[in-house]
Amino acid sequence: MKDIVIESAEIVAIGTELLIGQTLNTNSYYLANQLTLLGISSYHQSVVGDNPDRIINTIRAALKRADLVITSGGLGPTADDLTMELVAKAADKELVMDRASKQRISDYFTSIGRTVSDNNWKQAMKPEGALVMPNTNGTAPGAILVFEYEGATKAIVCFPGPPSELRPMFELSLKPWLEERVAYQFEHRFLHMMGIGESSAELELQDLIKSQTNPTIAPYASPGEVCFRITQRIKRNQAEPDLISPVVKEIKKRLGQYIYEDGERTLPEIVLQLLQAKQQTVGFAESCTAGMISSEFGNLPGVSDVFKGSIISYSNQIKRNVLGVSSKILENQGAVSRECAEAMARGARKTLLTDLAISVTGIAGPSGGTKDKPVGLVYLGADYQGQITTEKHLIRGNRERVRTVASLRAFHLAWRCLKEKSDA
Amino acid sequence: MKDIVIESAEIVAIGTELLIGQTLNTNSYYLANQLTLLGISSYHQSVVGDNPDRIINTIRAALKRADLVITSGGLGPTADDLTMELVAKAADKELVMDRASKQRISDYFTSIGRTVSDNNWKQAMKPEGALVMPNTNGTAPGAILVFEYEGATKAIVCFPGPPSELRPMFELSLKPWLEERVAYQFEHRFLHMMGIGESSAELELQDLIKSQTNPTIAPYASPGEVCFRITQRIKRNQAEPDLISPVVKEIKKRLGQYIYEDGERTLPEIVLQLLQAKQQTVGFAESCTAGMISSEFGNLPGVSDVFKGSIISYSNQIKRNVLGVSSKILENQGAVSRECAEAMARGARKTLLTDLAISVTGIAGPSGGTKDKPVGLVYLGADYQGQITTEKHLIRGNRERVRTVASLRAFHLAWRCLKEKSDA
User: Fold this and answer.
1) What ipTM was predicted for this assembly?
2) Distances in Å between the alpha carbon of A27 and those of A83, A229, A380, B417?
3) What is the pTM of this model?
4) Which among B142, B135, B76, B72 has a CA at the least distance from the CA of B107?
5) Which of A118, B14, B124, B262 could cross-link B102 (Cys pair, CB 3.0–4.6 Å)?
6) CATH number at residue A291
7) Residue A229 at interface with chain B, using a CB cutoff of 8 Å
8) Per-residue pLDDT tens for A156-183?
9) Would you call B401 and A29 a contact, using CB atoms and an 8 Å cutoff?
10) Which of A191, A194, A190 has its CA nearest to residue A414?
């Protein structure tokens, strides 16, 4: 296969469900973000339905404008899954059976105890000469095809539509392939902050943001926190001086108190690693977040060493019976109060037998708010080896946002508990 | 202004933040869904950055293909906000000052106690002949322009980028305008299934899918379930026979045992409504899902009437101490076993004092799997007023997918428990 240098890419999302607004196009968002991190420019994105002519025309138009065209969707076993066939046609290639893919499909169906139906074999087809990207989470493999198109070398990459299949396939197969073919490499560093608003943080860094061209400093969107990305452009395979570190040092001088991560770890990952390092355990008592904190923590591989479990105390009965919150607190101060948050944290630590217990109680809305206790009022509590911390937050937004931001704040509280004791 | 009949539309989202993956394109999703509900077809969507040539080219290409082009973004006061100017250019119209918009901008700034800066007046400009759509949540008004383009009557609509401004503007201004100009309306119905694969389901319906043109039948896969959409096209303001019901009846005859919803409710919503109707309560005992089920259920407004709480028993200690799973089961059959799932469900119902308790225990991976108990092995248990059900699943995919599908299966089990007793 002829080699290629990739400076520009265009994303083509395929699927009628996107055109009729049934599915939110998170694939293009994810891919665009990944391309940006790799330093590949993108000037155009498209969405087309499951229609042969329109898919072909869109792919051809994209090939005229960009070095690389990335499609998502249309690799399923059904009759309206046409992508592989049409990509072959656009590139003027035959569609051929890939033996390894055929074997994997056969293995997959054996492993789930079902027989392969005829239309499943369709998923083993690829354009002649294409590299196959294996699918670790489904049956449809992806493909990378490099070919000559109107006198230039171009590439088309096909991904399956489900994000749970596309994302690992990008990480495992396309990303390393692209890293060998980009003209420039981009070195990124991320500074994550909590406790300061984005516009205030930007004001503090205004002069740096305006004067820097390499590295650049840009705010990076992330719900409930503030993040800045510092990016240095480097010619591929060339040793260049580290221009990022001096900028990071200056930002830390100005905003250090808000920074909880210089890197790419999320707050739950940082909390997990601190617990692992200290060989300590954690548990949660969740009311309005109703399992969101536990679920996010539980999604991290390796968490079972330090995560004992949680009590989701949606009703007062469970706050009383399982967590031991006194009826007096529930009657006098109410379930959404500093006192209740404290009692929940104490009760969770006692019941779950952990070093650290974090509690959350609040009003997620849309109903349940009063003048004194409005929607968005959230109390957090921590019991870290007997040392109690509580705090009050007022979070704006709908039910989902209140719960999401409350979860983030809970991890932030856990981090501060663990960190302060580490520093001491 | 000449009148127009609108059968097709194309959405063009404008903004570099979309191309670099900094902002998720929820506007196109929202607009596509609204267009579908109005019976307007959409065959293509685009995203372009803040670049004059590319914006003009994209708008012109869209005008060739559709009756209506809807843009979002690029109506702000800064130098890279170019949409209104470029739409005027594409339609060959002058850009003129709109007096009412000018007044509203002046009023807005007075109301927040600021003076209007020069670049804000830019937001009062519109293509000559355009209808203005007032902005109830910001300064940038939108515009509707009908004009002749290459021998046909076309329309361009411009919306501001922030969803909080675009959505009310659509509801208040564009929707009523479109309702007077559509040729057809679409009636949709969704059938949701579980327990059958997409390709097997499609095979069962192959003859129907191929022979139907009105209504159409289209599969739509979302993780862990199968969904078919049945769509009938109806002429505006015309009474037409219901062509959907006979098709639905036929599908139910063939696949009825797998269908859990004829409508748009999700499984957790169905479970919530069944519980509300029966005035019964639920709780969960989660091990490998670690709160995902509780969190999803807890995200539904109004859940507090029926949702008491959950025990996240990640460690065996909590399975024993809080849920009362015997040491014998944990030692002999292990935490991932039918026996443990049953004991967890019994224990959860006893501790949480609910009518129904659902338990999940499994191996989410990536580590922890053995030959006998591989990654993806999940046992579910239900205790519904003393009646016990357990089941075994083998779920393929990464940690996140195993947990997501296990959660969906747990809601499916809850639904079957509640439904069977209802039917009885």
Assistant:
1) 0.77
2) 16, 22, 35, 36
3) 0.78
4) B135
5) B124
6) 3.90.950.20
7) no
8) 999 999 998 999 999 999 999 999 999 8
9) no
10) A194
